[in-house]
């Protein structure tokens, strides 16, 4: 006898990293180095800890080989089912989920590949199960990034903010929108305020892009091909539908002929009759203050789980976030990895330098020659640093060559770059395969070929 799993995990890793194109040009975002591991390792490891034995990883077809090669070198035990999408098509997150429709037999956990956190997923699972939710979203309190200076030209980064409405009595998620959609005022429907009298609007929570979805949501998405984004379109649409009512029988029959009928979602969001009967017979109610039945009789129910305030979590989807996570990963490693051993120096690295401090992470294949100095830096695989050079507080990605008498401080150096003899670089971002000419002196600049930042 075979048993259907309760949840299927889907990790979305087909994004091109458009908000951090300075460092993702020509490289899959999901395998950017974060501390001792590729970025996507962190969410896969978290799902493995949650008990998943198999994960669907959505990737671009032309990046699958690179991603698979990197992940096969890690310590992950979970089985990864690679689902490739065409790299020539501009597809949103909902489009990717729609393509997966035939593979999704159970309720679904959707997670972005750029989520790095210690959060225990049990909390969001429990709220989803307890209320037989249609959708459950994981939210976190944001990290304090004060004092972090990002390489490149000095500019003030303005983080994106969401307006998230949660009923504090029931944890119902009843409003979701980007703060940028509103200039100074936020108007809410009277019906929403009457129904959810304990409504609180948050503007300081981080949407982790971790969502639990009922299987019917994917079936509904399959029928609504105009929806392209999970966060921007699908979730706000379903959340708003909580205020509507299922159509009467006559209208339901009409909706069969008209799939765009506003009540059509209720042909997917059907509750089990036995479960309804048990709830009607029970004295349970999720709220107080009126005589309405539990959940106000809603077939569509969205919930939010807010992780404890001290929970570490970052979405690595911008350059400041990437710089921040690499600055914090060592201090938070034990929590993030569930006490996995942190290997600071790969046994496959050649380290001839005697000046490597205890806050450096050296990847396999790196060669640090004699008379070099390293402090608080990440040195990627197959990097060679020649004599009389020093690297302080920097992230050096893979296959980089640093010649003699080079000084790097507060820099990000991308794949395949070459820093020629005698260069002095401070607060700079060096793009992939860029060659910094001999004797160069730069401060707070982006050094890259402009065409490498363009996506075709």
TrEMBL record:
SUPFAM superfamilies: Nucleotide-diphospho-sugar transferases. One of its GO terms (biological process) is cytoplasmic translational initiation. Residues 9-143 form the Nucleotidyl transferase domain. It comes from Phaedon cochleariae. This is Translation initiation factor eIF2B subunit gamma. It holds the Pfam family NTP_transferase. It is found in: Cytoplasm, Cytosol. Acts as a component of the translation initiation factor 2B (eIF2B) complex, which catalyzes the exchange of GDP for GTP on the eukaryotic initiation factor 2 (eIF2) complex gamma subunit. Its guanine nucleotide exchange factor activity is repressed when bound to eIF2 complex phosphorylated on the alpha subunit, thereby limiting the amount of methionyl-initiator methionine tRNA available to the ribosome and consequently global translation is repressed. The keyword Methyltransferase does not apply. Residues 353-438 form the EIF2B subunit epsilon/gamma LbH domain. One of its GO terms (cellular component) is cytosol. Transmembrane segments: none annotated. One of its GO terms (molecular function) is guanyl-nucleotide exchange factor activity. InterPro entries: eIF2B_gamma, LbH_EIF2B3/5, NTP_transferase_dom, Nucleotide-diphossugar_trans. Belongs to the eIF-2B gamma/epsilon subunits family. Keywords: Cytoplasm, Initiation factor, Protein biosynthesis. Component of the translation initiation factor 2B (eIF2B) complex which is a heterodecamer of two sets of five different subunits: alpha, beta, gamma, delta and epsilon. Subunits alpha, beta and delta comprise a regulatory subcomplex and subunits epsilon and gamma comprise a catalytic subcomplex. Within the complex, the hexameric regulatory complex resides at the center, with the two heterodimeric catalytic subcomplexes bound on opposite sides.
């Amino acid at each position: 006898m075979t048993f259907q799993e309760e949840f299927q995990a889907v990790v979305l890793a087909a994004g091109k990293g458009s908000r951090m194109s300075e460092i993702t040009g020509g490289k899959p975002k999901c395998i950017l180095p974060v501390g001792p591991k590729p970025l996507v390792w962190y969410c896969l490891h978290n799902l493995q800890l949650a008990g998943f034995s198999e994960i669907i990883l959505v990737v671009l077809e032309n990046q699958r080989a690179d991603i698979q090669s990197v992940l096969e070198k890690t310590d992950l035990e979970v089985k990864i089912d690679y689902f490739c999408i065409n790299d020539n098509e501009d597809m949103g997150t909902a489009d990717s989920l729609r393509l997966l429709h035939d593979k999704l037999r159970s309720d679904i956990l959707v997670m972005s590949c750029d989520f790095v956190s210690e959060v225990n997923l049990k909390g969001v699972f429990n709220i989803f199960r307890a209320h037989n939710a249609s959708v459950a979203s994981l939210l976190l309190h944001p990290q304090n990034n004060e004092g972090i200076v990002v390489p490149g030209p000095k500019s003030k980064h303005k983080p994106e903010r969401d307006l998230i409405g949660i009923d504090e009595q029931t944890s119902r998620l009843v409003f979701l929108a980007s703060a940028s959609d509103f200039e100074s005022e936020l108007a809410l429907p009277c019906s929403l305020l009457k129904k959810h009298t304990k409504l609180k609007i948050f503007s300081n929570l981080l949407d982790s892009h971790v969502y639990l979805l009922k299987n019917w949501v994917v079936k509904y998405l399959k029928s609504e091909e105009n929806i392209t984004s999970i966060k921007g379109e699908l979730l706000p649409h379903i959340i708003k539908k909580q205020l509507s009512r299922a159509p009467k029988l006559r209208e339901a029959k009409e909706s069969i002929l008209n799939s765009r009928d506003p009540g059509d979602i209720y042909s997917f969001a059907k509750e089990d009759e036995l479960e309804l009967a048990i709830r009607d017979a029970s004295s349970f109610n999720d709220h107080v203050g009126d005589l309405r039945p539990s959940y106000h009789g809603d077939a569509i129910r969205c919930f939010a789980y807010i992780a404890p305030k001290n929970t570490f979590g970052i979405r690595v989807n911008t350059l400041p976030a990437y710089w921040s996570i690499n600055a914090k990963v060592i201090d938070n490693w034990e929590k993030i990895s569930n006490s996995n051993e942190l290997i600071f120096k790969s046994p496959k690295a050649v380290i001839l330098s005697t000046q490597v401090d205890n806050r450096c992470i050296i990847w396999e294949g790196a060669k640090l020659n004699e008379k070099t100095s390293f402090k608080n830096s990440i040195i990627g695989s197959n990097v060679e640093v020649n004599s009389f050079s020093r690297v302080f507080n920097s992230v050096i990605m893979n296959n980089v060559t640093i010649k003699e008498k080079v000084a790097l401080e507060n820099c990000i150096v991308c794949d395949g770059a070459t820093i020629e003899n005698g260069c002095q670089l401070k607060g700079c971002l060096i793009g992939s395969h860029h060659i910094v000419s001999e004797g160069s002196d730069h401060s707070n600049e982006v050094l890259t070929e402009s065409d490498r930042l363009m996506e075709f």
